[in-house]
């Protein structure tokens, strides 16, 4: 039987508390489990607010942080066994990352294309300049750009949307089967946001890439996810089909989260700001 | 209610409403950089005219490089080189007289700040001194502007906090001991304690989690209704505008492109850019495919001729490339800057339908 | 934006930079004129001794029968070269240690930083004197430069490390990792450009510092006195009790010249610091104004 694409098995992450006298442990992620099927590419969304542990979970899946409990297996292989640089390169060519802030995700002093060329060289073994250029051009075409538009350009010459598309192309150079995108559109202007979001859909449908989409925004999560989990202070409080969960959340936290989303239609129905008495709690 | 501003009570009844509280007239504010090999002029606010009446929340929407942050800086009189006002005026019609922000001495400006004109910023840490208790921030900002001193002053602050459903104990906390949402609530309390007539809110909830955001917005609206102040609320989040603001102005590339009652604007957006912003907004339960806008955001350092939206506009015609459209009133309280719309408002809707997928 | 334009604007808009540059250029011109000296630097009694400044000998002559001006040209050349060599060697060390330590973190950081701290707390002067007494005649100019460089990198390595640590958390570093770049490429290609302006400014300060060390050691005679340096000149002047016998020009001109160099380099360093900060602010502004 073919192994799952990704198994997150009872994963926990505990940080030692900072401070001279306090030995308090902070449990950022607690016993999270889910799997992605290798034959059915999907957009799997992790929803959570700040402090929910969603980014910690992402970095464990990307093998940039080690779980303190449980295990993560990619295509049946435990990430804990990846030690050498060769193994890491092989892993990164299959599992790629897209970051939050496109304006910070490229070195402002360097042209953006160098990341693409390096990826082509390291992951795809393109030895010659021509081979690298072809590879990079292919990847850029998948996101609706071309090498001619990008070549030699610096980050400040491009918009957030363009940069994020280049980042996606950069991730696609090695033809990965899983992409982890941590808040990929939260810094992008609304008018460009949907172009990037639609790209994820295209990756899933046309290229068969599974996507772990990490966000706090329920509206875009509803728009592209197949399945989702909702995290609160390190724990999964609700999981399931994206539409079902968002249409009728069951866990009290999910319900609160769902109700807090401001919508345009809701504004006219009067379910907006005046509806509730506001009692803040001193945290 | 001693805190209730006298202007608020009278504003509704008397003909004060005829004169808007804030009038911005043909305002141009540019950044001029000429240093270390960089030589450029950034037209961040380019010919903006609008007014805000009493007791209303005016929303300002725009994306990055729309000039909205520069516009509010200019309105607050908080500009520093390289930013400078080229032409135009910013006039406040406070209850004790009219003032042109750029004709005031620094002392006069200091007198109206916090008392008549106050701010709520995205990062409340810039107002709250991180090494002093919240109480001191109140003393620093509010004490010079209110008649009460000593115990009466403390009592006034206490009552103000209670009105905002905040416990008095926050006064003894340090800013870092509070959560982000709580800090933002304190910032709102600080901005409203003197009962200002005008409040500028610059993305005050952008950095907050959704659950917290809703509460903070509700609190802001509550205190605004109570004081009868006017609020200029800036955010790029259209859903927030829909829920909070009374009127809405849309900025693009340093210019106001559309303005109207928030509801009207969402129900029937006229400018192609506004239409796109609203139609591309993803919502839970809405399964229609959404599209991003083609083309790149405007470059304020190299402004285009004609309408600045024309390279991305599905409706662009010849004149759009040559002439900048003026802001035209198409209905009472409704203005739009678009050649196509002003020529025939009815032709717009079907044309946009074709463009939408 | 090119470097020349930056330098031009700095020259026009920044008085400190213009003054500093002028002073350093004067000193460099004096050093360069050593190549046209009519007298070999080590020869003595080539001119009448103890002459006060005159048209023929603008800075006077020494009790050893040397022309002070031409002697000074060699001395300042060697001293300046000494400063530059020390600065270059110590910059290379502090860059390697600071960048790698800041980027890798963990045990690499701990090892390198404990080494770093060792060098910070070593008492500099006794070590140098100790070296002199061990090496004696083998204590050449080059060896001294190497030793001073080895003792002079630690502070700046910490500074560079702190910048590298903040660069490590930036997203473009993660982007580089996921583009398959190894430590070497990330450190030298991604991070190095960010620390270069600061390295440049610390270089100027380091030149000053090492010249100070060299002059102090030479005055006390703890160096190779046969290579003419500023400190060496003052050493010989002291040996001949120049100030007591009224030969003030033998001491005054070397001191004046080295002070000019000090002030010049210092002004350049602070104007560079000023430039480093607003430039980043301005270019950020240009990025997304």
UniProtKB/TrEMBL annotation, chain A:
Q: What is this protein called?
A: ABC transporter ATP-binding protein
Q: Which organism is it from?
A: Chelatococcus daeguensis
GO MF annotations, alphabetized: ATP binding; ATP hydrolysis activity
Query: Which positions carry the signal peptide feature in this UniProt record?
Result: none
Q: Which InterPro entries match?
A: AAA+_ATPase, ABC_transporter-like_ATP-bd, ABC_transporter-like_CS, P-loop_NTPase
Q: Which domain of life is it from?
A: Bacteria
Q: Which family does it belong to?
A: Belongs to the ABC transporter superfamily.
- The residue ranges of the ABC transporter domain are 6-258
Q: Which UniProt keywords apply?
A: ATP-binding, Nucleotide-binding, Plasmid
**A Pfam short name:** ABC_tran
UniProtKB/TrEMBL annotation, chain B:
Q: Which residues form the ABC transporter domain?
A: 25-278
Indicate the segments annotated as coiled coil, or none if absent.
none
Q: Which domain of life is it from?
A: Bacteria
Q: Which SMART domains match?
A: AAA (SM00382)
Q: GO MF terms on file?
A: ATP binding
User: What is the membrane topology listed in the Swiss-Prot or TrEMBL record?
Assistant: Peripheral membrane protein
Q: Which InterPro entries match?
A: AAA+_ATPase, ABC_transporter-like_ATP-bd, ABC_transporter-like_CS, Oligopep_ABC_C, P-loop_NTPase
Gene3D superfamilies (alphabetical): P-loop containing nucleotide triphosphate hydrolases
Question: Where is it predominantly found?
Answer: membrane
Q: Which UniProt keywords apply?
A: ATP-binding, Nucleotide-binding, Transport
Compartments (UniProt record): Cell inner membrane
Q: Which Pfam families match?
A: ABC_tran, oligo_HPY
The record's NCBIfam families line, in alphabetical order, gives: oligo_HPY
State the family named in the UniProt similarity comment for this chain: Belongs to the ABC transporter superfamily.
Q: What is this protein called?
A: Oligopeptide/dipeptide ABC transporter, ATP-binding protein, C-terminal domain
The organism's taxonomy opens as: Bacteria, Pseudomonadati, Pseudomonadota, Alphaproteobacteria, Hyphomicrobiales
From TrEMBL, chain C:
Entry keyword Transmembrane: yes
A Pfam entry, by short name = BPD_transp_1
The UniProt entry, under Gene3D superfamilies, shows: MetI-like (1.10.3720.10)
Transmembrane segments in this chain: where? 21-39, 80-103, 115-135, 141-160, 215-235, 247-270
Topological type in the membrane: Multi-pass membrane protein
Q: What is its main location?
A: membrane
Q: Which CDD domains match?
A: TM_PBP2
Q: Name one GO biological process term.
A: transmembrane transport
Which domain of life does the UniProt lineage start with?
Bacteria
Where the record annotates domain ABC transmembrane type-1, the positions are 76-270
- Report the leader peptide range: none
Give the protein family. Answer: Belongs to the binding-protein-dependent transport system permease family.
Please state what the protein is called. Peptide ABC transporter
